[in-house]
Amino acid sequence: MPDALPLKMLHDRLLVILDKDSSERRSTSGIVIPATAVMGKRLAWADVAAAGPSVRQVSRGDRVLFDPEDKSEVDVGGTDYILLRERDIHAVAQPEKDDAGTGLYL
């Protein structure tokens, strides 16, 4: 994620980078499911690159869940971003804890 973007976000707008892993998926048995496979409405994960001053629940660097059908794409400095409103975000992922395991090898 770039350190500084050459723009200032306004109001409740978010600029996110689509997670590369959300294009292809793997089933529980290990079969690769391509992004072109239609399986109903599927939400996507993205990382927040910038947030406007009125955004209250999300901050830069958060991983968010949103509907990719309701998106506006923009290219800034050769990187593709998606422009969203804060109300379009369905969830914010909790940060992963590195020490969450028990340390036991079974």
UniProtKB/TrEMBL annotation:
Key words, A-Z: Chaperone
SUPFAM superfamilies xref list: GroES-like
Keyword Chaperone belongs to the record: yes
Keyword field contains Chaperone: yes
InterPro entries: Chaperonin_GroES (IPR020818), Chaperonin_GroES_sf (IPR037124), GroES-like_sf (IPR011032)
Entry-linked CDD domains: cpn10 (cd00320)
MF term (GO), any: ATP binding
Similarity remark: Belongs to the GroES chaperonin family.
Name by which UniProt lists this protein: Chaperonin GroES
Native source species: Arthrobacter subterraneus
Lineage of the organism: Bacteria, Bacillati, Actinomycetota, Actinomycetes, Micrococcales
